[in-house]
Amino acid sequence: MPLPPDLKHQLRTIRRDGNGGWGPETQGKAPHKPIMLLAVLDLYEAGHLQQNLIPYDEVLLEAFDHYWQRCSPGRPTNPLQPFWYLKASPFWRHQAKPGFQQALQALVTAKAKVPTRTVIAAQVAGAVLDETLYAAAMDPVGREELRQAIIAAHFGAELREALAHQHRVVVDSFACAQALRQQAAQELHDLFHGTGALDSAFMAESRNLAFRRVVVDAYAHHCAVCGATIRTPSGRSAAEAAHIVPFSRCHNNDPRNGLALCPLHHWAFDQGMLCIDDDHRITIHPYARAFPADQGFIALHRQAMRLPNDPRYLPAAQALAWHRKEIFAKAG
Ligand SMILES: [Zn+2]
Fold it and tell me: Is 135 exposed, middle or buried (0-12, 13-18, 19+ CB in 10 A)?
């Protein structure tokens, strides 16, 4: 299905900011909007999006960030901006949640700054594509033509291979996450055996993305140790997916070999400065408990960890025991 010329023209003429010192790899302009569209197409390809409604959620944010890090590594960005300002294109509009039609209309016409994530979450059900673009996004051939048209119009030749790679990583991460969730529904016999199949089926980057998504989702983005769920204004959360037994030791991304942790407690866990007992209580290393300045950390001693919402994702006793013996007891 060849793309209609009108749609091609609309994609080519997406308004992009020319300030900010962008190089030839993004044709001298800000790549936010094309990256947002590439992320959306991936979510359709992966089956994560199945209707003409694109919510601003963690999954979209994560896909956007994955492309962004390849195009503009280290440069700060707020993905809410392209999600909001794509409304300047004829193919993208926002759908209000019930009861918020007028409030959203006022926001759209006010030409104010991009709303906060809190406002978007309260008032906006999602973005809606026009029928022609949506039909193309749902069709495998049309979707690939869309991707190629967006890439050709907005990126330099030096980024095209990288964008193709990111595309595969993002799309495959959904199949890998599905495999991990299925794995967690089955009994776990031995963490150290029997998981090589996933290793060979998916690239490491896809496996990492999938592991993080499944584990962090299981804890609703809370740190299992301190409960923190800190987010940036655009919605990025501090939660990381920690392997209980390092991947290098067991090659196992089973979600039960994972804990959602904030960066501080991820570090402390990996260093053996805390461990989790079989009753899911936290033990702070005796060495750390001797420093009065670290009261906030010491106060976690013997507290119950925050459990995943679904008991299928409870950390494996075998993994926690290994961590206590090999990491906590040998902390140096
Ligand atoms: Zn924490």
Answer: middle
Distance CA 306, CA 220 (A): 10
Cα of 110 vs centre of ligand 1, distance in Å, is 39
Alpha carbon of 322 to ligand 1 centroid (Å) = 21
Ligand 1 mean position, distance from CA 240 (Å): 10
> Which residue type, as a one-letter code, is found at position 35?
I
| pLDDT, tens digit, 9 for 90 and up, residues 55-84 | 999 999 999 999 999 888 889 999 999 999
pTM summary value = 0.93
The residues spanned by each domain of the chain are: 5-169, 195-328
For residue 178, the CA-to-ligand 1 centroid distance in Å is: 27
Rounded to the nearest angstrom, the distance between the alpha carbon of 257 and the centre of ligand 1 is 18
The SS3 call for residue 195 is coil
